[in-house]
Design brief:
- Two copies of one chain form a homodimer.
- With 205 residues, chain A is mainly α.
- Helix content of chain A is 80%, strand content 0%.
- Chain A folds into two domains: 52 residues, Arc Repressor Mutant, subunit A (Orthogonal Bundle); 130 residues, Tetracycline Repressor, domain 2 (Orthogonal Bundle), CATH 1.10.357.
- The longest helix of chain A is centred in the middle third of the chain and has 27 residues.
- Chain A starts with a helix and ends with a helix.
- Chain A binds a DNA duplex (18 and 18 nucleotides) through helix 3.
Chain lengths: 205, 205
Amino acid sequence: MTTKERIIETAIALFNEKGTHAVTTNHIAAAMDISPGNLYYHFRNKAEIIRAIFDQMDRVGFDDYQQIIALHPAGSLAAMEETFLMIQRFNWRYRFFKRELTVFILNDPLLRERHIKVHQAMLQLIRHSIASSVAQGMLRSMPEDELNLFTEEIWLLTLFWLNYLEVGGEEITEETLRRGNELVRQTVRCRMTDQGLRLMEKHAG
Amino acid sequence: MTTKERIIETAIALFNEKGTHAVTTNHIAAAMDISPGNLYYHFRNKAEIIRAIFDQMDRVGFDDYQQIIALHPAGSLAAMEETFLMIQRFNWRYRFFKRELTVFILNDPLLRERHIKVHQAMLQLIRHSIASSVAQGMLRSMPEDELNLFTEEIWLLTLFWLNYLEVGGEEITEETLRRGNELVRQTVRCRMTDQGLRLMEKHAG
DNA sequence: GTCTATAAGCGGATAGAC
DNA sequence: GTCTATCCGCTTATAGAC
């Protein structure tokens, strides 16, 4: 791993542990046993480190997104759960980001725009996924309004499950992540047709 | 309003606007046209201002909670919606707090414990409310597991609706808050009995 | 209670040697 | 690429006059 990469990984670890504002460039340098000057050779300043992390997130996020797309036709429910867990893993790796997101967005219009685009894309992905489940007769068809709210509900649950666990003082484990998945599944089950429910039972058994 | 109160109100406004870390004691003093020294006469440091705000939140939150309790027997659905909006207003007034909550909790074990207690109390309140709706025949009875998940879903939606709007780049208005309410309502509707649905229709019409 | 002035400390950032 | 040394600026916090 290059020094630049090590700086980024160390920064992610420390940001996740203490929050970006409690972590200084000096802390990052000290934690990886290099001098502050060396750190500044690789990055102009702290903001640039954060930007580099965001870029990494974009790349990883894009790869994940491609995987989700590829997964999607495979089978509605299983694909959805795989997607949920994938997003949770992403949110966990970059958990400082989600924690401080609103403040970042407040102070950085560019990040705001970028994030809104991702947000919209995810909503569309979910809506599309729901529509295809309806077409397959797994979900009952519903009026436009209800479909929109349903879409937002799924996305909100997925987006904030990790945060929910954290502010409730729960550990993030396989078990608690699985519970979030259960939550989404139950929300979906509410809108299932009899046929969909039968298929799900079979799948579970 | 005393200077002390004005400091608190100014701090809340600035924290909401810029985030706690971007706002210094000097900024607060300047914004209200007093000297930094004067501010330090009333508060030992910035952390103490934040603590004073938390204390205010506790008091306001407790009053709101009492109102919710009082509201509760009045009528399930209407009370639930009133509660939702009350919590949104609270979250909006202290929006810096919810935005930075995970980081606060990370660095302050006491706040963590306090917050977890509130979290648990709200879950219990919701669970109790659901149980009484089931007893009244409004909601279909459900297995323990489903009830727990349902409770958490309601609470998660209520807790994060404001955050959801913010990270999605939406304005907080009567309209968008109402949409959050719709979301919760739809989640509840999924579990309603025929009797409950009829009552709701009548209520809406 | 409120002001002005100022000290102390820290984080961010750069220069220049190696 | 990496280090040491150092500077700038800002925030916190205090002392002492009014």
